[in-house]
Task: inverse folding
């Protein structure tokens, strides 16, 4: 019996990929020398696109696949799937809903410790054989310091809880004061930055938050302040951040997101006061396994004529 053909846009968790290949004919878009040519070659047979919530599926891809029935996301799309184009052709869109706030908060807290204690710098110090010649630069303790959190949503709150355990005082900024917390509230990010030793960006990316963290905020954070971004790159003004780091106008930054992923600005690569991660905020084995189970359940249900368990309408 001929396997159903799917188009996989990017590599995903290897056990999930192996499961897909056992049950479907998988066309791997990222491996093609010419992606448009591959889509053209397989278009007449591809009934599903499997993609990530981050990458999604745009109209130009949907329009090239005449028998497409399903767009199955590994993760949850936030504006990355053209739902209007899919709805016009009655294409089902699915996601894999999960609660990633805890794991992203873990990373944010870990980055605060890594950055303020200089863990990556000390690791490089040892590997370079410099320990015999002297002592590394001293880091900063978290206890007694203030962490300002931009956006006290689920991720912001869980980050606050974790950093409180290390003795940090929490303050936050957002569009409105939260009635159920006692943390100090700042209506303006610049004011929050001025009072913070470490500023964590955890708010959604919207037109209102684009470039929210610019030169004035970084200047307010100051030469002893640290910036952590586990949200979206567009919230931080790239040129201003590179300048602040290069000129040591802030003490350092830890970034899990970038403006043109997977391309990282060359100006950041050689700086020792920056920690660079490949967008791993929700990347844990446990989250990937959960998403894999839900992805396969969506595919099985659709191709057996049943209602998909995790339909995504917008």
Result:
């Amino acid at each position: 019996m001929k396997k159903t053909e799917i188009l996989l846009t990017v590599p995903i968790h290897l056990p999930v990929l192996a499961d897909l290949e056992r049950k479907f004919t998988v066309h791997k878009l990222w491996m093609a020398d010419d992606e448009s040519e591959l889509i053209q070659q397989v278009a007449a047979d591809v009934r599903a696109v499997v993609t990530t919530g981050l990458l999604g599926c745009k109209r130009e891809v949907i329009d090239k696949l005449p028998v497409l029935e399903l767009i199955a996301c590994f993760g949850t799309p936030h504006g990355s799937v053209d739902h209007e184009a899919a709805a016009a052709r009655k294409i089902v869109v699915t996601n894999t809903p999960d609660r990633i706030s805890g794991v992203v908060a873990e990373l944010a807290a870990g980055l605060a410790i890594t950055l303020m204690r200089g863990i990556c710098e000390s690791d490089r110090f040892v590997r370079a054989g410099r320990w015999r010649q002297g002592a590394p630069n001293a880091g900063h303790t978290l206890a007694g310091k203030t962490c300002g959190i931009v956006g006290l949503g689920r991720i912001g709150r869980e980050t606050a809880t974790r950093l409180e355990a290390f003795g940090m005082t929490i303050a936050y900024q957002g569009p409105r004061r939260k009635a159920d917390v006692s943390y100090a509230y700042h209506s303006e990010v610049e004011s929050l930055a001025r009072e913070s030793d470490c500023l964590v960006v955890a708010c959604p990316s919207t037109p209102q938050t684009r470039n929210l963290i610019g030169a004035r905020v970084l200047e307010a954070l100051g030469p002893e302040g640290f910036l952590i971004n586990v949200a979206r790159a567009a919230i931080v003004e790239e040129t201003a951040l590179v300048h602040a780091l290069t000129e040591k106008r802030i003490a350092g930054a830890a970034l899990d997101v970038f403006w043109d992923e997977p391309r990282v600005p060359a100006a950041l690569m050689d700086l020792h006061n920056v920690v660079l991660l490949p967008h791993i905020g929700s990347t844990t084995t446990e989250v990937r396994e959960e998403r894999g189970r839900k992805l396969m359940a969506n595919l099985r249900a659709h191709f057996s004529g049943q209602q998909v368990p995790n339909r995504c309408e917008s």
In short: DSSP finds twelve helices and twelve strands in the chain. The first helix runs from residue 14 to 23. The first strand starts at residue 5 and ends at 8. The two ends are 35 Å apart (CA to CA).
